[in-house]
Design goal:
alpha+beta; Alpha-Beta Plaits; about 160 residues
């Protein structure tokens, strides 16, 4: 997986074109592609930090809520999201990056989680399954599990 974070769609397109022109590009295919943008949370007002923290593992998946979620009163949804945050705080080794895909892609969100402890991510997801908000999840697959590798090492893994 190539996880790209940039300020514009033009920069993203140029970056991917640059990759395709390299030795690595000969080995690249794009069976999945997700596009999302950073923005302030409608529930908490805080803006996500799109910068990677450089953890060993990256877990990425698209996410869509059921339509019923949006017909709930805002305060009820906000309380459920507070519960989500409380669960997440039990796993401080896991950093979440929430990307908003409304109108840009087939999904509503792209969630990316970084951690050095894969078990912490698994336990976080397991605990979130029992939260109230999870009843309103429509799609949260496929999940991609990635091990961080710098470009030079990736080229080395491909062989001569």
């Amino acid at each position: 997986m190539v996880w790209s974070i940039c300020d514009s769609l033009e920069t993203l397109q140029e970056f991917h074109s640059d990759i395709l022109r390299t030795h690595l590009g000969k080995h690249v295919s794009t069976p999945y592609s997700y596009l999302a943008m950073s923005r302030r949370s409608e529930y908490f007002g805080s803006a996500p930090d799109p910068e990677p923290v450089g953890s060993k593992y990256l877990f990425v998946y698209p996410f869509t809520k059921k339509r019923e979620w949006y017909s709930l009163p805002f305060e009820e949804r906000r309380e459920m999201m507070k519960e989500h945050v409380r669960v997440g705080q039990k796993f401080p080794s896991v950093t979440i990056h929430t990307g908003y895909s409304f109108g840009l892609d087939d999904y509503e969100f792209v969630l990316s989680f970084e951690t050095d402890q894969a078990a912490d991510f698994s336990n976080l997801v397991m605990e979130l399954r029992s939260s109230q908000a999870s009843r309103y999840t429509a799609v949260e697959t496929p999940i991609f599990t990635c091990l961080a590798v710098d470009p030079q090492k990736m080229l080395g893994l491909l062989g001569p």
